[in-house]
Recover the amino acids of this structure.
């Protein structure tokens, strides 16, 4: 029976083959369906190449003025120069310090507070009015106050990152901890757990995957606050580099700054992803 | 000794919008030492509520529950429970799940390992000690939950529709396995189900509950000899018992429908 199918396929006319390809292509557009890894990679590569090609065409083709859109070569050259004189690493390091300090400070406080808020109604009642109000405030609106209160040093930049992530983290983590199954908690009571065991041995481990996901997402948001953080009275950092380049219309430097921020963001995201897989193998997403 | 007495227990829940709902009304029920007691009743009649009261997870609005004469005031390891939902700790391996209660009670690592190995073998999961719950099927998870409850050596084992989420073939296997385990230790069991076959196959005694507010309508001794196998499901004694329970439940259902009509 098998051989019959094979011979049939061999004799298949070109019309049938075309129909088969058409149906396979159509299957790539069915919602919520997996597609072959090779098709996925090719499509992604095509997008990246198209963007790069469009950029090259517009800049090298002279369709856009170079002080509006630098050529890829110019950006590469800017990278080479700033790498050679060490200024790029200096700026990048300065930004990474600000982001990590603000982010770690926020996380250290937000994780326990969020877990408690989602598990204890009394904590929720106490914290909700503040988080509910502050979460919708644009961080940039607070900058004048921050300058007034803590000056224009690195503390002010860290505070911007902190404010931008802390309240979001508290709310997201409270949600994670509120989502821990009631049966799981009750079950541990029937196994002899006391309240302190429930907190340390059930609630905290049960929230870890969600906490890691939240940290990963808010780490991404922390990067988006970088330029805001380095808006005022900065003398180093990628955000500062971008703002400073604007004054001299050094678009190649602006592009370089944007590319480096994107790249660093991508790297931290991958690190967080790997960390989750390594720390929480039991919560692997399938 | 482990005799459980539920003495005229009522349970009312205050509703958020005001008013209250009566889930249980004047429940009287006794489970003798080493008896396998089953409660059957329609959905929403308060079976889970009753079991949660026995577990001490909630306090009754009226009445009292006693275990060996001692009033129940809160949850404790002498009343182990298996839930309908999957309640294994996903971050612990099978072995560490089974050891959970022992670890909290401060049992030494060597003794813990020995006890866990014994019960993991009894529920037929030897070889899966280091698996995480996410790697197990539904039936296997409930077997681990059973082993975990038994490892604590509770006086009473409470089971709230533990096989309710399983497909019918797996459920049949789990029922046989549970009886097999029970023949070994003869725990005092209070088991909840809405499946009459399951109730009669497992129980020494079946309590039939009414629709809400839940009361005990009938208490039916199941004098089918043990050890039981699936052959009993077709025996005349079984069919007769089933017919009588069905008649009670049918009457209850009719009553509920009439009560709901305007
Ligand atoms: N915490 C609660 N607050 C308010 N009402 C509740 C609460 N718990 C249970 N109830 C109500 O009590 C009644 C009995 O619920 P219960 O879960 O005990 O029923 P059940 O017999 O276990 O149902 P099922 O077969 O669906 O599991 C239901 O009407 C339910 O809405
Ligand atoms: Mg129930």
């Amino acid at each position: 029976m098998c051989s019959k199918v094979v011979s049939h396929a061999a004799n298949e006319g070109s019309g049938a083959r075309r129909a088969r390809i058409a149906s396979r292509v159509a299957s790539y557009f069915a919602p919520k369906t997996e597609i072959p890894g090779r098709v996925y990679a090719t499509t992604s590569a095509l997008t990246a190449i198209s963007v790069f090609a469009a950029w090259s065409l517009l800049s090298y083709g002279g369709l856009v003025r170079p002080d509006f859109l630098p050529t890829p070569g110019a950006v590469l050259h800017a990278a080479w120069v700033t790498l050679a004189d060490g200024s790029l690493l200096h700026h990048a390091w300065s930004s990474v310090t600000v982001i990590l300090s603000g982010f770690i400070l926020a996380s250290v406080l937000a994780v326990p507070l969020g877990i408690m808020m989602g598990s204890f109604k009394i904590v929720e009642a106490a914290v909700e009015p503040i988080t509910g109000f502050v979460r919708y405030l644009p961080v940039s609106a607070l900058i004048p106050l921050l300058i007034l209160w803590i000056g224009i040093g690195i503390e002010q930049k860290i505070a911007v990152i902190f404010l931008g992530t802390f309240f979001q983290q508290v709310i997201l983590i409270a949600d994670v901890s509120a989502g821990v199954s009631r049966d799981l908690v009750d079950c541990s009571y029937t196994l002899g757990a006391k309240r302190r065991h429930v907190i340390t041995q059930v609630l905290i481990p049960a929230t870890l995957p969600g906490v890691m996901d939240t940290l990963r997402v808010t780490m991404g948001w922390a990067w988006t606050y970088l330029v805001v953080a380095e808006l005022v009275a900065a003398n180093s950092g990628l955000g500062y580099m971008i703002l400073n380049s604007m004054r001299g219309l050094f678009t190649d430097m602006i592009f370089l700054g944007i590319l480096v921020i994107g790249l660093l963001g991508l790297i931290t995201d991958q690190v967080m992803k790997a960390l989750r897989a390594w720390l929480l193998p039991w919560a692997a997403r399938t | 000794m482990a005799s459980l007495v539920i003495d005229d227990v009522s349970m009312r829940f205050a509703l958020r919008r005001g008013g209250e709902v009566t889930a249980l009304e004047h429940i009287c029920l006794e489970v003798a030492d080493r008896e396998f007691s089953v409660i059957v009743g329609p959905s929403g009649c308060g079976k889970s509520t009753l079991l949660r009261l026995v577990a001490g997870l909630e306090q009754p609005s009226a009445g009292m529950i006693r275990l060996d004469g001692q009033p129940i005031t809160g949850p404790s390891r002498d009343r182990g429970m298996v839930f309908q939902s999957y309640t294994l700790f996903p971050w612990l391996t099978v072995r560490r799940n089974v050891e959970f209660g022992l670890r909290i009670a401060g049992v030494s690592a060597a003794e813990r390992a020995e006890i866990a190995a014994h019960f993991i073998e009894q529920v037929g999961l030897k070889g899966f000690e280091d698996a995480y719950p996410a790697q197990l099927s539904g039936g296997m998870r409930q077997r681990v939950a059973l082993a975990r409850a038994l490892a604590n050596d509770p006086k009473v084992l409470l089971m709230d529709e533990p096989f309710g989420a399983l497909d019918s073939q797996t459920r049949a296997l789990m029922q046989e396995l549970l009886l097999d385990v029970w023949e070994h230790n003869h725990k005092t069991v209070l088991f909840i189900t809405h499946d009459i076959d399951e109730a009669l196959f497992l129980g020494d005694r079946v309590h039939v509950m009414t629709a809400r507010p839940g009361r005990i309508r009938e208490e039916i001794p199941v004098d089918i000899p043990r050890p039981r196998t699936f052959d009993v499901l077709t025996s005349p004694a079984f069919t007769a018992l089933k017919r009588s329970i069905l008649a009670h439940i049918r009457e209850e259902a009719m009553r509920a429908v009439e009560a709901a009509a305007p």
Remarks:
- The domain at 72-283 of chain A is CATH 1.10.3720.10 (MetI-like fold).
